[in-house]
Amino acid sequence: MIELHFNQLAQMEKLCAILILFSLLIANTYATSKEAKDAEKWFQKYLSQRKEKVAKLHFYIQDALGGPNATLWEVARSEITSDSPTMFGQVSVLDDKITAEPDRNSEELGRAQGLITSADLRVSGLAMNMNVVFTSGPYNGSTLCILGRNPIGSTNRELPIVGGSGVFRMARGFSISNTYSYDPVENYGVLEYTVYVFYA
Ligand SMILES: *[C@@H]1O[C@H](CO)[C@@H](O)[C@H](O)[C@H]1NC(C)=O
Ligand SMILES: *[C@@H]1O[C@H](CO)[C@@H](O)[C@H](O)[C@H]1NC(C)=O
């Protein structure tokens, strides 16, 4: 038993040494990369002229819940989900189109990508982890991270913005959303979002 234990320790030490070597290699590759230099340059500039910006964004999320072209799909559920009045335990993944106008065929501003989990046993409430990924316009390539509880039964729902990337580095703020329209025949919803955000 003890010998085995020592053997395992020796193996773990070897593995650790390999991992450390590997991470050093990665670290070196990172340190000389364009991304690292850009991040460092950004950090120095941020330190010297730290001034927060603020933005108000308004957009619509096209939530296709059904049909072959649905953009939201269930990926897991619990044993009690089917009997639960709140669909407790249902986990879905989404990649919804974001538009500037409510019309579903209007130009794509970005995508709303992430996971939503029905996480309230008593009233409808979602635990959301959703990234707003801009794919056009001045924010193209930048993201905002929405993370928090969505009281889906309420008319105006506040959600925290906990971070961002690109233009929205260091972002924090909140969004207010409401259901702009819902078509039960097609199972298609349009959600209106107003986002208030500070960023670096
Ligand atoms: C699904 O998308 C395809 C390709 O864009 C389109 O041709 C088709 O009509 C769509 N189907 C439905 C039911 O919307
Ligand atoms: C957004 O950025 C991507 C990646 O840089 C680029 O390929 C694409 O053409 C841009 N789209 C628009 C609409 O500017």
UniProtKB/TrEMBL annotation:
Keywords: Apoplast, Secreted, Signal. This is Dirigent protein. Residues 1-31 form the signal peptide. It comes from Rehmannia glutinosa (Chinese foxglove). Pfam families: Dirigent. Dirigent proteins impart stereoselectivity on the phenoxy radical-coupling reaction, yielding optically active lignans from two molecules of coniferyl alcohol in the biosynthesis of lignans, flavonolignans, and alkaloids and thus plays a central role in plant secondary metabolism. InterPro entries: Allene_oxi_cyc_Dirigent, Dirigent. Belongs to the plant dirigent protein family. Homodimer.
